[in-house]
Design goal:
By secondary structure, the protein is mostly beta strands. It is built from three helices and 46 strands. The protein has a five-stranded mixed beta sheet.
């Protein structure tokens, strides 16, 4: 294949450098397009408003309406640049209602019902009544498309369908070529997808311009399989699917599909009646785009005691894969898996290893782990925080050693079933781990804890901060100085107070001679060198970026003046644009996250059709 490419190198000059305060540039967009904010599923949100002092005084915005209709198990999304320039909160419900709310006041911008949900009486082994949209949707900003899976019935429950929808995020209109009927299009090795016995709980993902939708079961009932369905965003008629060969192996962890940009990663649950032959369950699997499973041991990992995990219903799929980079560790690019066996596993992301021992493992809880985890890095190290069943919020550190190991960090008693999320003022400092005391046994309040120590930062607030209708596994988001949480029939907004400076008294002026102005020295410009290399991957435009030197922990990636990603500072990023052929040009720069300390701009051009 012939690749068109351009390489540009410049040294930045004349740049006004801002302090590492975490302040988002005024012209930057802040969008939450998917579960836990990034494809790695790290759950990290950078917002300069969330200092510990401000977080301690978090208060619910009582003027935020947020009224919706239906039970909610999905995380809300935050999308800027909506109708009239308004920012939007996207929320979905089990009644198959989709809402775009004004992020400022919670009023409805648009709403859409995508079909009748299925009553529980017409389903097997489910506590969802009705069942409609369960998994967290995802937005592709380039096409302004919102993707979701809805379980629907055209005849009151007799016929069950899973439809994958693509809606215009600004209007709610269904995009051309959608929805996709999963049962009519998904097959693998002679198996066909049966909509009536499969549940879509995990979050959806996008990698290399392909939408990935994972499926599990309804309470381990029926002859179900773990399914991963891939739908090209620009060609929904071309569906590719994979399924476990054994019965069971559901993909049900709420975190869903993780990705480093090209390859989707999933975890699977327990299988049945295998005869001792592994059939896809209790695994971490990396797929090639499609999804295509190579079967190579480099592309999957299964613990040696997988059959014992099967027999005890100790699913490895309880939390979903978490992609974690640990600078200084060997290997440093890791997958973290957390299971119902209360263990944490570290895996080499570049070579998962087949059936065998992990890079490291440790029992990190005395309870099942079945909520999505988060990861963040401070000056103290790289952390993973997770909810241990209904009783505790805990964190461990991953050591920067050869090989990396797992070290206990902190644990606090905190009842409920919400999944955590994390805020930071700049990507390194003031880490606060947030969690809702959700569902049965919880206090229906938001709580915040210091990411290094576990000390209480926010204790739930007062009478106004009590929330109704919280659901297990659900999680909140952070955007523009606010936290948003979607619960049954309502989205709640919490505001971090902004400090008001004490006014300085103006003294009576005394006439003095006018001094000769002394020129103010210009700040020393940052020296960030950005290089870009354009190529085609499966005929789609792809740009490899690399930069040096940068000292901050996270980097904002700009394409054509808009932040498209905030990523750990690994010195490189692959932008899988997904456009096929044609003439195109893309202009890039990178900045230390939340600052205007940026690199030179680099333009990459693609010309002519692929050959």
């Amino acid at each position: 294949m012939n690749h068109s490419h351009s390489i540009f190198r410049f040294i930045i000059a004349g740049l006004c450098v801002a302090a590492l305060s975490g302040v988002v540039p005024a012209n930057a967009q802040v969008n939450v397009t998917q579960h836990h904010n990034h494809a790695s599923r790290d759950g990290l949100y950078i917002d300069s408003a969330f200092t510990p002092a401000a977080a301690a005084n978090l208060a619910r915005d009582l003027n935020f309406d947020g009224t919706i209709s239906g039970d909610v198990y999905a995380q809300p999304l935050y999308i800027e640049g909506g109708p009239g320039g308004r920012a939007m909160i996207i929320a979905v419900t089990e009644s198959n209602n989709v809402y775009a709310l004004d992020a400022a006041d919670g009023s409805i911008i648009w709403q859409r019902n995508v079909g009748a949900p299925v009553p529980a009486d017409d389903l097997m082994c489910t506590k969802f009544d009705p069942m409609g949209i369960t998994g967290t949707p995802i937005v592709d900003l380039a096409s302004r498309a919102l993707f979701l899976d809805a379980m629907t019935t055209p005849d009151g429950g007799k016929t069950k369908k899973h439809f994958i929808f693509s809606l215009n995020v600004d209007t709610g209109d269904t995009n051309s070529g959608w929805p996709v009927d999963v049962e009519a299009t998904a097959t693998y090795n002679g198996m066909t997808f049966t909509a009536g016995i499969q549940q879509q709980r995990p979050a959806l993902g996008i990698a290399d311009n392909i939408l990935y939708v994972p499926y599990g079961s309804m309470g381990d009932c029926g002859l179900f399989h773990g399914w991963l369905v891939g739908v090209p965003i620009d060609n929904p008629a071309s569906v590719t699917a994979w399924a476990t060969s054994a019965i069971g192996g559901g993909i049900w962890g709420v975190g869903g599909v993780a990705s480093e940009g090209m390859n989707p990663f999933i975890t699977t649950g327990n299988t049945f009646n295998t005869g001792g032959n592994w059939g896809g369950g209790e695994a971490v699997i990396r797929f090639q785009p499609g999804p295509i499973f190579t079967g190579s041991p480099t592309d999957y990992w299964v613990p040696v005691n997988w059959l014992n995990l099967d027999n005890k219903d100790w699913d490895l799929a309880g939390s979903g894969p978490l992609l974690v980079d640990v600078p200084g560790a060997t290997p440093s690019n890791l997958v973290v898996a957390l299971g119902k066996d209360a263990n944490a596993y570290l895996l080499n992301r570049e070579n998962l290893g087949g059936i065998g021992a992990p890079v490291a493992s440790s029992q990190v809880s005395d309870r099942n782990i079945i909520q999505a985890a988060v990861t963040y890095r401070t000056k103290q190290g790289t952390y993973v925080a997770f909810r241990a069943s209904t009783t505790a919020l805990s964190a461990f550190r991953i050591t920067a050693t050869n090989p990396p190991t797992i070290a206990s960090a902190w644990s606090v008693s905190q009842a409920g079933r919400g999944s955590p999320f994390v805020s930071s003022t700049d990507g390194t400092n003031n880490m606060i781990v947030w969690v809702v005391g959700a569902d049965v046994g919880g206090d229906q309040r938001l709580h915040g804890f210091d990411g290094d120590t576990g000390n209480v930062v926010y204790a739930g607030g007062g009478a106004n901060e009590l929330m109704a209708g919280t659901r297990r596994f659900n999680t909140g988001i952070v955007a523009r100085g606010r936290t948003y949480i979607a619960n049954d029939n309502k989205v709640y907004a919490f505001v971090a107070p902004t400090a008001t400076p004490t006014p300085t008294p103006t003294p009576t002026p005394t006439p003095t001679p006018t001094p000769t102005p002394t020129p103010t020295p210009s700040p020393t410009p940052g020296v960030i060198t950005l290089s870009a290399h354009g190529r085609r991957v499966q005929e789609r435009h792809t740009v490899d970026l690399s930069w040096s030197p940068v000292t901050s922990a996270n980097i904002d990636i700009y394409r054509d003046g808009v932040v498209i990603a905030t990523v750990p500072n690994n010195g490189a990023y692959k932008d899988f644009i997904g456009v096929r052929g044609g003439n195109a040009r893309y202009t890039y720069k990178v900045c230390e996250a939340g600052t205007q300390n940026c690199s030179n701009q680099v333009t990459v051009r693609f010309g002519g059709p692929p050959r």
